[in-house]
Amino acid sequence: MSLRLGFGGKGVGGVNVDDLWGTAASGDWRPSSAPRSDWPPPPLEGNGYLRVRCNGGLNQQRSAICNAVLAARIMNATLVLPELDANAFWHDHSGFEGIYDVEHFIKSLRYDVRIVEKLPEITKNGKTKKIKGYQLRPPRDAPISWYLTEALEKMKEHGAIYLTPFSHRLEEEIDNPEYQRLRCRVNYHALRFKPHIMKLSNSVVSKLRAQGHFLAIHLRFELDMLAFAGCYNIFTPEEQGILKKYREENFKDKPLDYEQIRANGKCPLTPEEVGLIFRAMGFDNSTRIYLAAGKIFGGERYMKPFRALFPQLENHNTVAGTEEIAENTLLGSAVDYMVCLLSDIFMPTYDGPSNFANNLMGHRLYYGFRTTITPDRKALAPIFIAQENGRTSGFEAAVRRVMFNSKLGGPHKRVHPESFYTNSWPECFCQTSPKNRGHKCPLENVMEILNSRMQSDETDTAESEVTSNFTSSIS
């Protein structure tokens, strides 16, 4: 959707804000992650078993699961259901089975990899024991060659390998469209939250939609992100002490220049800045906003100016009102994810190392080019700094120029450092009438063809085994 052309109507500065509630122009592109070239089903006999431990939060784990499936395919391995890390920060032990629909996950990927829920047991000398995976620490963004050499060698030697940790352990930019499409099949089709999470999420969305359109914000104004960014100066001495202590304990220590960090747009937007951006874009105080956020650092002191601009603020606790969410960190994150995915408009306030926002932007692109507003913090920084110093003339016009010069959810080329999980175009999209034959949509019945081929291969294997056994018995 391009908003630089100008629209008539009740908008601000020639832009009709109502147009933002629709989806972006698709350019005849539609999502498609089905294979478009020869894609044989996984053989009955593989090279061994792959176990992984996915560390980080829910959405960092999500991309790790996609990488695990691809790694299993690359190594011709059977994937053991990925383990989700339970650490001191997240205080959650839900595991894969507590968040995702396991049966759907395994069934959806049956043409791609073999998946088991746990490592099998083996019987040797009358004793039964579990296979133990050889533990390896993959390099960050490891190339495919690492999996085909070092990892595969250990798998063949030990029967199973255990890769830990497994966050960002497979390179993103791979010159193989079919491998990238497999990632999309995992991310956008196989990974489905459990039915009760989907039901709860749909209930929240229905309640929000009952009063019309709503937009969702991922507000990263939390202790960990502020400490990581090194943005201290707006806080009290006591709060600065908390941030510095957290940074020393969790991140690499390096000299910080707050003024330079702020001027470069490296600080997360404050709640008030988010409110001022929306006002400048033409949203009024009747706009319904869903807030996906953890505990806001500084509390109500920082939320009050935002609430004054947009009083209709909601979150999963105010809409759902269930104790289950309060007691389950990953459940709350899963509900936030689904509500943000289904919202009319989504805006991340910090698109640095925030897997929640990155995955969501990619998911919204895949499901219909839904409007996503991505603030250019570097371009906005001097505007806000000038306003703080009393130079308020032309403030809203300057904000509008920045915001309406941004990509808002339509198809666009992926440029480093943009992640594949943020933008899977063009690999996971196709056109019905393309200029490039490589972008042509595959046959509608491609999955039926794969299913038929898989059944045929299994039948041939079974017949081969019967013939082999018969031959052995008469020889």
From TrEMBL:
Return the GO cellular component terms, semicolon-separated: cytoplasm; membrane
In terms of Pfam families, this protein maps to: O-FucT (PF10250)
Listed pathway(s): Glycan metabolism
For bias kind Polar residues, which ranges apply?
464-475
Major localization listed first in the record, in broad terms: membrane
Coiled coil located at which positions? none
The places in or outside the cell where this protein is found are: Membrane
Biological processes annotated in GO: fucose metabolic process
Q: What is this protein called?
A: O-fucosyltransferase family protein
